[in-house]
Amino acid sequence: MALDQGTRRHLADAALAVAVGALVMTAAAVDDGPTPADYALITAGSLALAAYRRAPRRVLEVSTVTMTAYVLHAHPGTLAALPVLAAVHTAARAGHRGVAALASALFLAAFVAMDLTARASAERSLLLVGWFLCALVTGLADRNWQAYLRQTEQRAMEAERTREEAALRRAGEERLRIARELHDSLTHSISIVKLQAGVAVHLARKRGEEVPPALLAIQEAGGEAMRELRATLEVLRTDEPTGTPALLVERARAAGLAVELTVSGDERPLTATVDRAAYRIVQEALTNAARHAGPAKVAVQLDYSTADLTISVNDDGGADPSCPPTPGIGLTGMRERVTALGGTLHAAPRTEGGFSVRAELPLGLPEEVP
Fold it and tell me: Which of 49, 156, 266, 305 could form a disulfide bond with 17, CB atoms 3.0-4.6 angstroms apart?
């Protein structure tokens, strides 16, 4: 049976810890014959490396304490530093630079003190200093490289999203242009044809003449063409939301986002423009939270007052108030919708952490004319 990726990682980490422990024990056995207590210290310091992905700082503490005790007790060779070197590297990669440097200094101090009392070998101490510096530097370099890869992937996803939104916006603008052209060119002509046919039919009946069947067909076809054209123009001009903010919240929950909806005030039907804007604002805010906030909790609140609808979408993600985001097409489009309705929008990181979107939309606007 094939193992999943998590199980394979755990097995690889365990194999690494066993290999490091076996190497250190072999070197210890070759030296002066360690005691059972020395073997216990080597085992604890090496096998702790199996948990370096889950708890790198705790692994560093365990490896440093046990291997330092082993060095002070048994006076081994430089290979005794191997578990601590691995722990320092993983801790630096996880961002614990200060703790990793402190652990390196403590272990080196113990090793140098042991060296001075035993063989006074400055070369071995300098070699270990170089190894620990390499462990710190490579750990930091690996951390920076992983951060660069994540940023590159995020920029690629944002660029793809931006292209999709730009394409949708261009398609919407093209629909509106086509609707205007059809309205300006065809509506007038068909109206004139229908009007003239109606006048001709009216005059013929007034004079008691038989109305030609072709004239009646033109009048009926003109009326049908006007109805079809109005329906087509309505479709081209429609940008209606396909649900409600409550439905958006349910979809976000189904996608794995921890989101809660609160409605306060006197909830009532909204005009088409305000209803559409409210839907798009909640949709964009939830999309941004799902993309950028990580495993965060999101609170959506709709507050109906006499004159305004206030929409608040707050998350407790990792947004930093000192690094406000560069507005993309989503935030820009959100601001344009709110401004067009005469409302106000605030979208920025929160002081306590996370991101906040707050829009105030005036109510009581007239219905949009199709």
Answer: 49
Report which of 249, 253, 252, 274 is spatially closest to residue 263, judged by C-alpha positions: 249
Burial of 322 (0-12, 13-18, 19+ CB in 10 A): exposed
Which residues face 259 on adjacent strands?
Answer: 298
Please, what's the largest Cα pairwise distance for the chain? 132
User: Which is more confidently placed, 1 or 258?
Assistant: 258
Query: Which tokens belong to 84?
Result: 């601590």
Report d(CA 329, CA 331) in Å as an integer: 6
User: What is the rounded CA–CA span in Å between residue 329 and residue 346?
Assistant: 16
| pTM across the whole model | 0.44
In 3D, which of 329, 251, 321, 328 has the Cα closest to residue 290? 251
Q: So what's the pLDDT on residue 318?
A: 72
Question: Do residues 49 and 59 lie in contact, with contact meaning Cβ atoms separated by under 8 Å?
Answer: yes
**Contact yes or no for 215/202 (Cβ under 8 A):** no
- DSSP-assigned letter for residue 79: G
Phi, psi of 368 (to 5 degrees): -75, 135
